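Thread: Newbie trying to understand structure tokens

Hi all, I'm a second-year student working on a class project, and my supervisor (Dr. K.) asked me to get a predicted structure for one chain before our next meeting. I've only ever worked with sequences, so writing a 3D structure as a token string is new to me. If someone could post the tokens and maybe explain what I'm looking at, I'd be very grateful. Here's the chain:
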Amino acid sequence: MRRFGLACDNLLEADVVTADGALIHASDEEHADLFWGLRGGGGNFGVVTSFEYRLHPVGPTVLGGFVVHPFTHAREVCRFFREFTASAPDELATYFGFATFPDGQPVAVLVVGYTGPLDEGERVLRPLREFGRPLADTVGPLPYTELQGLFAASYPPGRLNYWKSSFLTDLSDEAIAVLIERFAAVASPFSGIGLEHLGGAVARVGPDETAFVQRTTPYSLLVTAAWEDAAESEGNVRWARETWQATQPFAEASVYVNYIDAGEEDRVKAAFGTNYTRLANLKAKYDPENVFCHNHNVPPSR
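---
Reply by user tm_fold:
Sure, no problem. This is what the structure looks like when written as tokens:
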């Protein structure tokens, strides 16, 4: 996304069946208002039966993997992540997180994916791989499809999940200290805290050019509670909520709409921000009876 933008930035056209059964072709030239809303507005306006996307050549081999550090060095690793991402090229995606090793050891993890020339990627990633004394370094050439699946094993079928998320405006030392303190109190070995580095091509699209409004914030924060025993649900949900609450002094009110969990319907307005009123007006035009309401719903304006 830092190199080529979000999926919604690369949508060229779509066929949409609206609530009244009409089939509409939406693009920059036809039904441009609906096309704007489809790019980030969720499932509020109809059933999309076909998408056409702008594609970009990547790979087939890219650089990616994990660099894992002891949790005792979490503060230094997170500070490095902050400084390293400040000058990262668009070809590089870098995530940071706290997790628990299978042996029960808490760790600080850097996750990278570089989609440019491999020799240049080796040069760009050298400072990250040479920092500190990592417990593990799996970074190397791999297929792009494998890079996309790096997190799949962390979310097996049947595991219970509850997420909280915000966009962080500040990864200060104070924010880092809060993240470390909250992960130290984690309720499950399957839970984690993650930071996604944004920017690049994402930030070069105006906030009103698509329905997706959060273009300039540097990081997306994820608090991902996960557990296996339903009897432990209350404690795990509480940990996620308290962790998220502790981060709010460093966050925007907004949230990535796909990270809104059950019981957070009141955050839909925050997810769409300054574009919410325009989306509500669009909803009134294309779905005035709010037929498409089983989603992160934007009711039609009245």
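A couple of things are worth pointing out once you decode it. The radius of gyration is 20 Å. The helical segments are 32-38, 74-86, 118-130, 144-148, 173-184, 233-247, 268-272, 276-286. Feel free to ask follow-ups in this thread.
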